[in-house]
């Protein structure tokens, strides 16, 4: 990970104590004044003509300008089971629909069952260059993607009438052929009726030895959600064992977005029905068991999570509450709650770079989409960046950062 902070900016906090406002002002104001590709945040519009919005991140953590690049695929809308209407906001009901590695960006096209791959500009990370053509996913309604740089493998989770995960190798020339790794018999339709009984996220864990998939249960029909763990055959190869191991940790119902706590086999996964869970992945059995359950008072749909290296904590968002909650990395307690006053109806995907937290609100059609930027050291909002001028609206979903 590169840092675009100059040593000057990093150094001052130790002298100035709590007068952070001055430090920020002492740092260069413009987006990318130093050499190198700079930091960029990406959001998927998930519109009919799907696009990636890329916005440069300044040294002060704020967003400046931005541009859009089409993915060559179509976005999608899951169906909201309570209204039978297209679901947006939270159109894909997933975490990780767009991700970045050290060189590439991957984005799902839920409406055309493909995965797009881009090279990130070497002199300017805001610029994206499509690599090859979007790859066909052998399933329906892809909503989440994970990449392992160590194994040059990318895996996609899809949750329509044909649900499962498929993986392909990737090279500088593009994506290989996608092969199904796991099938999930969810009895879904295309587009799926959610947000319950659908895939939430795929991600790699435990030093990229395993692919994790979180699948939401449906409390109304007593359908149990689960965590699927799929082991690679050996330390180097990109082929998997033929069967995954599934666990439904007791007391969980709607497992959603997850993070792997660094240097451990512990997983922190939100549960939309009550808050968050701290889970252990047993590397002998591949079973996932609950260690701690954290009920968030007044929560409605706690679904997205991101790890903060700067604070050694996890931040979570709620699709129906305009606030940011910070939880200790062992899942034992809430460390801070930030109620936002910017008029957004709720927050979905979340990303963190250093001390800065970025949370996406797709709005609701009336209230436009925006990214809220929070300085986690100061515990306050420093920017509310409108996305409507860049073509992102209530269907937008998925966010990633290159740094
Ligand atoms: C990178 O590209 C964006 C979009 O074209 C532009 O706004 C920004 O100024 C560029 N950054 C640099 C350092 O050239
Ligand atoms: C992670 O994997 C790499 C290579 O596969 C290995 O060298 C390293 O020791 C592993 N780290 C841990 C913490 O297991
Ligand atoms: C779900 O389980 C509860 C408790 O066992 C039961 O009362 C209820 O009827 C079940 N609902 C359905 C739809 O099966
Ligand atoms: C993993 O599971 C095995 C078999 O049930 C058990 O013996 C072992 O103690 C477990 N490891 C941890 C770290 O819980
Ligand atoms: C959109 O969200 C705003 C709050 O940000 C709320 O006042 C408004 O009623 C919502 N509109 C719809 C169509 O849900």
From TrEMBL:
<keyword id="KW-0732">Signal</keyword>
<feature type="region of interest" description="Disordered">
    <location>
        <begin position="68"/>
        <end position="91"/>
    </location>
</feature>
<protein>
    <recommendedName>
        <fullName>3-carboxymuconate cyclase</fullName>
    </recommendedName>
</protein>
<feature type="signal peptide">
    <location>
        <begin position="1"/>
        <end position="21"/>
    </location>
</feature>
């Amino acid at each position: 990970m590169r840092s675009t902070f100059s040593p000057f900016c990093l150094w001052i906090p130790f002298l100035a104590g709590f007068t952070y406002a001055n430090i920020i002002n002492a740092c260069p104001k413009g987006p990318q004044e130093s050499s190198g590709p700079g930091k960029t945040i990406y959001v998927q519009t998930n519109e009919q003509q799907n696009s990636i919005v890329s916005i440069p991140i300044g040294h002060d953590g704020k967003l400046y300008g931005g541009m859009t690049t089409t993915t060559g695929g179509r976005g999608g809308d899951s169906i909201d089971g309570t209204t039978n209407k297209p679901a947006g906001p939270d159109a894909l009901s997933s975490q990780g629909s767009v991700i970045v590695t050290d060189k590439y960006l991957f984005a799902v096209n839920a409406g055309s069952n493909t995965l797009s791959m881009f090279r990130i500009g070497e002199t300017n990370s805001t610029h994206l260059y499509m690599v090859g053509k979007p790859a066909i996913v052998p399933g329906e309604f892809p909503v989440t993607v994970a990449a392992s740089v160590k194994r040059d493998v990318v895996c996609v989770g899809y949750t329509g009438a044909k649900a499962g995960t498929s993986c392909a190798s990737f090279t500088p020339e593009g994506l290989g052929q996608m092969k199904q790794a796991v099938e999930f018999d969810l009895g879904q339709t295309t587009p799926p009726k959610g947000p319950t009984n659908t895939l939430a996220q795929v991600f790699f864990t435990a030093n990229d030895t395993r692919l994790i998939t979180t699948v939401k249960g449906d409390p109304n029909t007593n359908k149990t959600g689960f965590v699927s763990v799929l082991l690679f055959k050996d330390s180097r190869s990109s082929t998997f064992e033929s069967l995954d191991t599934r666990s439904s940790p007791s007391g969980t119902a709607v497992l959603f977005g997850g993070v792997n706590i660094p240097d451990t086999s512990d997983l922190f996964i939100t549960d939309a029905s009550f808050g968050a869970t701290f889970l252990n992945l047993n590397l002998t059995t591949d079973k996932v068991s609950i260690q701690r359950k954290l009920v968030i008072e007044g929560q409605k749909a706690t679904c997205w999570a991101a790890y903060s290296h700067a604070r050694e904590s996890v931040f979570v968002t709620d699709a129906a509450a305009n606030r940011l909650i910070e939880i200790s990395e062992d899942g034992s307690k809430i460390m801070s709650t930030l109620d936002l006053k910017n008029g957004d109806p709720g927050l979905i995907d979340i990303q963190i770079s250093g001390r800065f937290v970025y949370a996406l609100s797709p709005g609701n059609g009336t209230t436009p989409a925006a990214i809220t930027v929070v300085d986690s050291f100061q515990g306050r909002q420093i920017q509310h960046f409108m996305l409507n001028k860049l073509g992102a609206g209530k269907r937008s979903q998925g966010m990633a950062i290159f740094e």
